[in-house]
Amino acid sequence: MLPVTGTWTLPFTAYLVLLSNRVVYQRLKHKQWIGNQLNSDKNNTGNHENPDPLFLESRCHMNFLENVPFAFTLAAIAELNGGNRTVLNYVMAALFVLRVGHAELGLRAKDTLGPGRTLGIFGTQGVLAGLAAYSAYLIKGYWGY
User: Fold this and answer.
1) For every residue of the chain, which 3-state class applies, written as one string?
2) Neighbouring residues of 12: CB distance < 8 A, sequence distance ≥ 6
3) Sign of the torsion formed by the C-alpha atoms of 104, 105, 109 and 115
4) What is the pLDDT of residues 74-109, one digit of tens each?
């Protein structure tokens, strides 16, 4: 019924597991069982040269979770309303590249300011807006257009 979104569950989930494990690793390494930053004077959330490692990995994880579930919902709505499967596959592939780029080539890059960060967030916003518009277009007949 949803072969496109079903296809993309594996790579997105695998990457989410990687992001989750990075947070767990920082928690175990620093014995910080709760919260999203370490209790250290030299590490802080606003320091781009020496970012708090737990906060950094937590933000990579949270940024992924803030965007991907809604994108999957929009893609599933489009797919259920007859969206072109080839187009939706390309969109999901683009989203995957954008989200990986945001973390790996953006937040985790030198000084947390890599080019993947800007491309990832604005690209993801474009994907979300595009999926919403495409979904609305697919059901335009329902509204009499």
Assistant:
1) CCHHHHHHHHHHHHHHHHHHHHHHHHHHHHCCCCCCCCCCCCCECCCCCCECHHHHHHHHHHHHHHHHHHHHHHHHHHHHCCCCHHHHHHHHHHHHHHHHHHHHHHHCCHHHCCHHHHHHHHHHHHHHHHHHHHHHHHCHHHHCC
2) 68, 72, 96, 99
3) negative
4) 999 999 999 999 999 999 999 999 999 999 999 999
Please say whether the beta carbons of 115 and 98 come within 8 A: no
In this prediction the pTM is 0.91
CA atoms within 13 A on the CB side of 39: 5
